[in-house]
Records
---
Amino acid sequence: MRLPRHVGFIPDGNRRWASARGMAKEDGYAHGLAPALQLFDRCRELGIDEVSVYGFTQDNTRRPSAQTHRFREACVDFALEASRRGAALLVVGDDSSAQFPPALARFRRRQGSGMKVNFLVNYGWQWDLDGLTAQGSLRSADVTRLELIVRWGGARRLSGFLPVQSVYADFFVVDDLWPDYRPAHFTQALQWFDRQDRTLGG
Amino acid sequence: MRLPRHVGFIPDGNRRWASARGMAKEDGYAHGLAPALQLFDRCRELGIDEVSVYGFTQDNTRRPSAQTHRFREACVDFALEASRRGAALLVVGDDSSAQFPPALARFRRRQGSGMKVNFLVNYGWQWDLDGLTAQGSLRSADVTRLELIVRWGGARRLSGFLPVQSVYADFFVVDDLWPDYRPAHFTQALQWFDRQDRTLGG
């Protein structure tokens, strides 16, 4: 089976998952952590070169502080544990803002070795593109072209996820919510990806 | 029903359609013209403000000249007929290249009145983004944010289609090939769009 070199993950649906269980919306984020680490391990086992993961965006920080506090916390937990397990971790996002977790500042330059993990934290597509005018390169310039993007939670949109690296990515949507992640979701995405042609417009 | 203000169309599958009928691949493009005009008329009837349509890309011009000749021809036919029926037509693409049809040069600035039609001809996502470094704005700066993108032919990817305007677009894929367009495809896309939430990350 032809594996994608670089896969993007959009783990959406934490709040809907919590609401469906009568929990406060913000309680959903913590339930996204174990699945994220499980998927991280799976990607390493498969030998995937690079993954990009949506943590939270600048737009997301307009939510109530009970939520922003909890998703920041979940992101820090994921990043530190992924780093501890062994990853070449780069955090991509606007670290000039108070929304950016100080604990992740050192990962604004890639640290560690192993599978490349690009973790989008306080990321914004406009912030990213503004790099082209401000400095002549994307702020995500160290992130390569995506081949496959997998989104949980049913929405069929990119929601600002790495627009330049996504230009030729195949887009697979899982209707289940992210905390309901099962390994079969990713297996199905990979099998589907294997059946897609790759002409790149030629 | 809540209609999208701006819809993108990726009419893919002309070559596969022709091959499946034992025709030469390049004979497929001409069969995409009548559906395109039918869909154009439908959008006007519905009162949609703006549509963006993938004609061909700079990547597509690497194909055999029998194909490039025919898709250029189909694009000119569509643009002139849409203009004749009444549209505010803007052609977006690199007109400094021999691949750009001279007959469309006058539409590099929007001409006419009515529904806004942005037609991508010899378009390239990189060419578009290069505008940010070269001139401080996208080369597609006159194209607004997309709300819905409909792609025919089954592929679940943007293939470089207006990456900046697509950041929050809902993406609907029709498995049928473009020359097999039926009005029901677009009706289904609109009904599906009406059921999507629009939080824009908030």
---
Amino acid sequence: MIFTTNKVSNAYWKVSIDNPPINLFDTDFSRQLMVLMDEMEANENLQVVVFETANPDFFVAHVELLHANDFPKGTGKTGLSIAWPDIAKRIEQAPFVSIASIRGRARGLGSEFIQAFDIRFASKEKAFFAQPEIGIGAFPGGGGLERLHLLTGKARALEIILSGDDYNAGLAAQYGWVNRAIPDAELDGFTDRFAARIASFDKQAIASVKAIMNRNATLPVNEHIMDTQTQFFAALQWKEARERIKMLFEKGLQQNSDVELNLGKYL
Amino acid sequence: MIFTTNKVSNAYWKVSIDNPPINLFDTDFSRQLMVLMDEMEANENLQVVVFETANPDFFVAHVELLHANDFPKGTGKTGLSIAWPDIAKRIEQAPFVSIASIRGRARGLGSEFIQAFDIRFASKEKAFFAQPEIGIGAFPGGGGLERLHLLTGKARALEIILSGDDYNAGLAAQYGWVNRAIPDAELDGFTDRFAARIASFDKQAIASVKAIMNRNATLPVNEHIMDTQTQFFAALQWKEARERIKMLFEKGLQQNSDVELNLGKYL
Amino acid sequence: MIFTTNKVSNAYWKVSIDNPPINLFDTDFSRQLMVLMDEMEANENLQVVVFETANPDFFVAHVELLHANDFPKGTGKTGLSIAWPDIAKRIEQAPFVSIASIRGRARGLGSEFIQAFDIRFASKEKAFFAQPEIGIGAFPGGGGLERLHLLTGKARALEIILSGDDYNAGLAAQYGWVNRAIPDAELDGFTDRFAARIASFDKQAIASVKAIMNRNATLPVNEHIMDTQTQFFAALQWKEARERIKMLFEKGLQQNSDVELNLGKYL
């Protein structure tokens, strides 16, 4: 089980992510997340869910690259591909509040994973963020090009995506990538109090806030998300990309290695 | 008189808000604001207006809840309801510059009041902000769901609205809720110099800046504002909301009380 | 030669701006920039270009006002006026990455010049920014009313444009006007490593990032840019503007003077 759900109350769930060794977003992650999403949507009392990591070094490392063809195929209820874009849209549209409490690395699809949440809190000392795809000769394919600029503005999104470098939580908060950077010792308590507070409010009012905000605010366009994902999978087949990926695997990619701890330096 | 206008010059007016005990946005506030708005629009020399509070603890506490049905009804010249949305749009569209110089609490409709201004300066030590409606089982109905995310981005607007909690001026400035947090001892001097500077410029150029910016930038949609306000008044009638409001009144709501000073804790 | 190009590599060019005494954006600047733009677009290997200044006090001071009628006339390949709006759009749409490394003053058209770049890094101690047009009885005419609010939000753009005042790099970074403020001693090294890193990546991936982002993000509207420019040139003929400009020239405008170093104080 990659996702362990702690039902703090009927209204407040905590989900812990544990996919050793580095919390890769692999095909199992994808399939189990679909089951969890169905379960959350089916629960009429759920008001707030917090996602956290069991691995303090990695929140979600990135997409698993060796078996990219094995991700589930097809179209979900949102009209988007079920592998991830459909789940991202369902998190956005859900009547409950989604919070990412981030410790460790959230890079590539890991960064795009948290961008789909309503709210992001990050450990000031232990959370790191990147969109490293440019370093493998590609570009963000899981929503980073559709959602990151809505958080940070276009100029800072271009800086992040074109550098592919690691960003600490302080800079991520300054840029709007996350809501706040919180001292690591306080993160769990802060997030827990924040979520419990929301769980104490009226479910109908929470659902109204999300529905009205989703009507008013600029949201990613479905056609953009799907076109970019298609371009991303094509880019992974470029000669340049295949060579860069091969070299990174030789250095320790997808293992609990210095490459994964400090990916920004290796690109 | 809730609003006292100090005409520093023909081009620069200062308006002090004084509606004891806690500067509630009540029916008198609404009616007198309509008169003041007419007066400002009618004045051809006015270039800049600063709103400040006579009460250092409260800028505008929030909407008055016991007589919500007595607010003026009808449609204003903008096509929006006259109770407040029409005034907010007229402030936005005015050829003069509106500045809120904020000391004390600006919660709920008080927060939405300042969101309608062009520019917001806040006392670093003494200004506090909240959209506390979720705590009474409702949601922002006076523009907060239409304007706040344009200032802070969607993620931080959701955090603010879903928590209903109090935010100090430093965090409000970091989020973009206000332009700047300024040390309390410097706030009045800073705002006065800023406004006097604008008053020294050419009225036609100022009006052009506002007109062009209003054409270029994303503005709240009239239909969204009206639909949300309608939903808000309906939500106040929900059983959950009526019970929460009743409980808060028993603790001291709408009085100069610890509840009003520290509303975030009581929700 | 106002622009000296140092081809660090085929993929990475550095352009130094030198137009004594204060790097005015004059007719020569405009014509030579058009030639440079053609050269950059024609080069198939170029991935990243950094613009910096040879004059530590001035990045680009502002537009030259005495010969405003002599700027090149006509429409460029983007459908925009060639004097500057066409170049700005071509920088935005280029398949290579444009970075401004800013030291000294970037005011008016100098500020609008850097707003057209993808990414902006500024010297924390030595970079200063302003849209001072209100001080000459006009308003930004070279894109400032179309691009600045996309970086800073509407409220802070209005503050900047309506005050006409000088902003240091720290506040500019807080507002999003620049990506980051970097200690002056580190700026050159930081920008160089950042650009060299981008130059090490795959050109096709970089071009895809820019193309997709330009499709997804909010961009300035051509019609708005042209209409504002037309209004700007008309405003320069207003009596109020002509008098304000005349007074500033008498104090030392367009010379290496205290007026140009501290323009905000003189407006």
